[in-house]
Amino acid sequence: MPLSPSPVSRQRLHQRSITYEGFRREDGLFDIDAHLVDAKDHDFELLTGLRPAREAVHDMWVRVTIDTAFVIHAIEVRTDSMPYPDVCDRIEPSYAKLVGANLVQGFRRRLHDDMGGTRGCTHVTELLGSLPTAAVQTFAGLRREDEGDRKPFQLDRCHALETTTENVRRYYPRWYRSANSASTQESA
Questions:
Q1: Which domains does the chain have, with CATH numbers?
Q2: How deeply is 179 buried, as exposed, middle or buried, from its count of CB atoms within 10 A (0-12, 13-18, 19+)?
């Protein structure tokens, strides 16, 4: 269900579009392609020149190649539109520092430490911040969530899948733990 209509008249000034696409490769690895576009609904005067309405101020791409353990094997960054031509895109090769990082084990901290602030591009770094979730969603459905001996990744990562909830008892009974046993474990 969409948001309710605005109770007051308004005019859109800006649109940011972000997409993530996950791909299985022939070599057994996976690509997550991310794309960010910022555009104004009006002509926009930058210090570097006029950007006509609906022409991208930022148009940025990232491809991250990962394995089934979520380890980054390769990363490619491209900037097609930027506010400071031939300057913003100079940072693209620096993102190779993230090769070897694991998307589900401390990735956002490493991303901030390696590429935060002036060490990277604010927009590319923001785009990469949601990459772990996009990768998890890419793998979802490739095998049943409750198969194997390992606790499913998504358990205890959101309120609906906390292992003490009725929802987990119903859909993941093997991993359910009563609230009493959880509070006993926490106090130990």
A1: 14-139 (3.30.390), 145-188 (no CATH)
A2: exposed
